[in-house]
Amino acid sequence: MAYFVRKATLEDVAEMIRLERQCPTTAHWTEQQYANLFAASAESPVRLALVGEEEGGSVLAGFLVARYLPAEWELENIVVAPAVRRMGIGRQLIDSLLVQARQTNSTAVFLEVRESNSAARRLYEYVGFMETGRRKAYYSHPSEDAVLYSKTLV
How far apart are CA 23 and CA 13, in angstroms? Predict the structure, then answer.
């Protein structure tokens, strides 16, 4: 099965929420937080929302949300549907973010992830992110450290 990545739209929010709710280790946002991704204002940070979609279909296989902090990007959330994990969708989403980061002449992309989320950590390391630190007891329900990663862009 082939997948492609495109910019998310407001019409994708319901499907993004449905997908996110299937994944207990991901960041859980409210519907309003997702809608705010598409409500640009002078005070709002610049955000990028991408979706991975089945070729010829309308079902989302995954999505990514990142925030631009001039000179750097922060990967805020990435979700891949459990049924299609390990099929390259996460990598396609991250590769698309890296293209955007390079187009904005950014120097790095950074993120944090639950220590126990070994599948995500393997993906980040596979695409060239390096572990840069930890935040003790950063997550709750359950309490868990965050592992910090960054990827320098050249």
Answer: 16
